[in-house]
Write a structure and sequence with these properties.
Number of strands: 6
Order of helices and strands: HHEEHEEHEEH
CATH topology: Rossmann fold
Radius of gyration: 17 Å
Largest sheet: 6 strands, mixed
Shape: elongated
Number of domains: 1
Strand order of the largest sheet: 1-6-5-4-2-3
Strand content: 15-25%
Helix content: 25-40%
Number of helices: 5
CATH class: Alpha Beta
Length: 214
């Protein structure tokens, strides 16, 4: 059986993931107007001196949407294998290059220090959409969609925040509607950017005074 990191570095998946990483902008930490998560609820402050650990999001209960073709199901299953590592690496990369935290790292398993902060969650939807509809119909028809739900907890188990996000691709700017693999890789990357920017804005006191509550 091919390992997760092998899948990430082969075929069209590699193009989508690497393109996302190369597009990571350099600059100042996220401002309030850059926080684009669909919803979030913050229960406490997030110190910048925290050791921030990012765990690969689970796909144990992920739904695929309404898939009518075997090719669509294969695409969704493949993305289910690579999306967790892609999201994890993209969040860590963005926070490492421009985040305010003293230390950011990927987390697998093991004990957490009480002062550490863990970002974890799950993919709730991985829908490749329909390429033919994206090309022939357009206007949002057949769009791909990726949804996540997450939480931020301290090493001692205290819940600090919850969040949720969905990103989708219409294929409007892509040739022949865009390959579903590339569309979904981009959706995952956009979720990662939104999560990282939320964490940066939160830690630096840049979240809007009136937070969105999921």
């Amino acid at each position: 059986m091919r390992r997760q990191d092998d899948l990430l570095h082969t075929g069209p998946w590699r193009v989508g993931v690497l393109a996302g990483l190369l597009l990571l902008p350099l600059g100042s930490w996220a401002r309030a107007d850059q926080v684009k998560l669909d919803s979030y609820r913050v229960l406490s402050d997030l110190p910048t001196e925290s050791t921030l650990l990012v765990k690969a999001f689970s796909t144990d209960h992920t739904e695929f949407g309404k898939l009518k073709k075997e090719r669509q199901r294969e695409t969704a299953e493949n993305m289910k294998s690579v999306a967790p590592l892609s999201l994890q690496q993209s969040i860590v990369q963005r926070l490492t290059t421009e985040g305010p935290f003293s230390q950011v790292a990927a987390f697998a398993e093991g004990e957490l220090a009480a002062s550490a902060v863990l970002v974890e969650g799950e993919f709730t939807l991985l829908d490749p959409g329909n390429r033919n509809k994206r090309y022939w119909v357009g206007l949002g028809a057949g769009k791909s969609k990726v949804c996540i739900e997450g939480r931020v907890v301290r090493g001692d188990g205290e819940l600090l925040a919850t969040f949720a996000d969905c990103r989708s691709g219409s294929g409007m700017m892509a040739f022949t509607g865009g390959r579903s693999e590339g569309m979904m890789s981009n959706d995952v990357f956009k979720c990662a950017v939104n999560i990282a920017d939320f964490l940066s804005a939160w830690a630096t006191g840049q979240l809007p005074a009136r937070t969105k509550v999921q």
